[in-house]
Amino acid sequence: MALGVATPALAAEPAAAAPVEDAGTITVTARKRSEDILKVPVTVTALTAETLAQKGVVSITSLANSTPGININDNSSGHADRSFQQIVIRGFTPSTTLATTTSMFVDGVAVASPSAIMSISDPKQVEVVKGPQSAYYGRNTFAGAINISTKDPTGEWHGSLLGMVGTRNNYRLQGAIEGPIFGDVLTFRVTGERWAKNGSWVNGAAGGGTLGDQKSTTGTATLLFKPAPNFTMKLFGMMMEDRDGPAAQARLYAYDIKGSNGSVIAPSQANCSFQGNTVGVQGQGKSVTNPYICGITPNLAYPVSANVTANDAIRSWLAGGTNRVVSPKEGVDGYGLRRISHHAHTTAEWVINPNITATVLAGYNREVWTTLIDLDGLDTSAIASSTNPKGYWDYPFLIERKTNDWSMEGRLNYKFGRLRGVVGTSFLKAQQYQGLGGGFGPLTSSLLSPGGKSESRTTGMFFGATYEATDKLSASVEGRYQIDWLGAFARPSGQTIQAGYLGPNATTFAGGALITHAKYNNFTPRVIVNYQFNPSFMAYASWAKGVNPAQFNTGILSSTTVVQNAAIAAGGQLSIKPEKVTNYELGIKGKLLDGRLRYTAAAYYAQWKDQINAISIIINDPTSATGTSFQQVSSNTGNVDLYGVEGDFSFKVNDLITLDGAGAINASDIKQFVSTTLSQLTGMYNFSGKEMKNTSKYSANMGILLHGDLGSVADAKWFTRFDWSYKSGMWSNEANILRTPDRHIFNLRGGVSKGNVSVDVFVNNLFNNHTYTSIGDNYAIDNTFAHFGFYSAAVVGLPELRTFGLQLKVKM
């Protein structure tokens, strides 16, 4: 299997001996009960351990590549790295890091960050459920949900060792062992993994090196307790650390960036201009001409480079604890990302009788991450500076976050005659701290701005009831009543809020005091009707409501009165309403040719109301060193219709050849949208008819698997697999003026196995595709700050280039 991809995780079994599985036997838990994937009336993709191995899925990125209708966006606020990875399903692009539209689960237990699911070694199964799942899963399942099931240990001793080496210093070391502690009553499983690689892009700045280096270390432990045939308790724990170098990213500039002698460091690639507006509000401001880049993104016109060599001044600044959200002991000590995650959960299931099963789940997650970026994103050593400790103009910028969440759920699954379903309740408490800051002069703690705690508490009561009216016709009524409480707290050191959001006078709060709070009540129903025409063909129709939690613009509370008033004028009120969606869906599922051909297809139409969008504002601020303040707030400024069709198939042609594929058209139609930032740039105020950003309208993948016995050699098998993944280009913004090219990735892998030993070889990105992986509007930043008031550049993520590798695995 292919293990040399850009991010670690989801490491699967070798594919050499993997059998072709009848998808009709796959069981999923999309409705919190076990159901046949071809009988459940929900759009769900399930990748078993065998399928993960056959496709070489080892990361959240490769999961998206093998699942049409999903994009991964790692581009935010001038950096494209693993600190920020949004999962975009069906075009539901979240505009902010807090407005997540897809939730993640491990063994059905909620996790507030996607980092946890990116680090599970050797999972049992991955389920991607599309469409609003609020009826069962609650907050942040607006577009769908992803659940990773971990493997249960057995009562027999088993183990495995895996080693992989590849080009650009790719390597992976993985081990697992499981066995009995007390017969079959108490068993355990322990895994450990270290993965690392050098980036694909050489840094053209002084100090050299590569951009995109990544390294991850993960350990997991599982205990399974079965004291009786009808009772099972599972405890799972994981510790993970990512230590990445500077990200592989670059900028496309709309203006020349020049050195002190007037020479061009990075040339403008502008090919169009707009009559923008100085304030971005219709009827206000003045007209201004703004150059920009339009059409398909061009190739870079300058070498990839960034000033990312840490000197003593940088290291001393990072070692300081004042105004920090994350302790320096857990933070970065140079440019790049450091993330530490701890996850633990327990699940217990009691089969009370043949008709009733009780399940209890509880989980805890803690994550801290810091990333130090070169904010200007360019080798600026040709710009002289007498104040910068590096001896030339540069802008190091630190971003850090700390999150904690606790969750509990209890439910009863029931079945009485023709009626079956589930009823339950859940609670999730999540806390988050954010901080950021940097500068282009002497580095001091005063440049850092830590935020206070943001907390959400979500209580939900849910139910599902399916009634089989006949042997073929059934109807389901499902729903969830949810109460969201949101609170914003002062910094631990205390905080004075200037006049603005909280009124005409300044207000002082003690450390940790509650500044503001709100509560929202929502009911999210779903109704499904499905008809089983025969044992091999089913059709369904559904109607569902979804809700995304509200937010606060708490980050701007520490700003001056001028800044707060400017944010209010731009539409960024303190309290933001929840987003809501209504989804209509039709689908079919079935199999033909004695089960050798399996297929699913679905069509949907969704109305997204009160969409939360980010608004970036630049304000004249004499208290700032640059004379301006850059702020980002959120507001309910959009209504969007989304619609599309999706389908997949698997066809076992014969014992030698298996074909599988999938495709999706995920279209969007913006009905209403407001963005002062885009209006400043383009002068556009009516975005009706435009499409959503950061998502592919068209996507597809196709795989060919050849496999069989290895001649007359006993217990020996071979396989070869060729995969093609296609994603159409993504818009950088809702004005639809700049788009990445279509992206085609081809992977090839093959191997042989004999008994418990397998050897695989692979090449990822076979044809060395250079297409950008992400895009986001940003700024051309230099010592003049002349182009910092309007979008003046686009940040693009750079792909992993062709990678060769060899893997050996031994099972025991």
TrEMBL record:
It is a multi-pass membrane protein. Pfam families: Plug, TonB_dep_Rec_b-barrel. SUPFAM superfamilies: Porins. Keywords: Cell outer membrane, Ion transport, Iron, Iron transport, Membrane, Plasmid, Receptor, TonB box, Transmembrane, Transmembrane beta strand, Transport. Gene3D superfamilies: TonB-dependent receptor, beta-barrel domain. Residues 38-145 form the TonB-dependent receptor plug domain. It is found in: Cell outer membrane. Residues 345-766 form the TonB-dependent receptor-like beta-barrel domain. It comes from the Bacteria. Its main location: membrane. InterPro entries: Beta-barrel_TonB, Beta-barrel_TonB_sf, Plug_dom, TonB-dep_rcpt-like. Belongs to the TonB-dependent receptor family. This is TonB-dependent receptor.
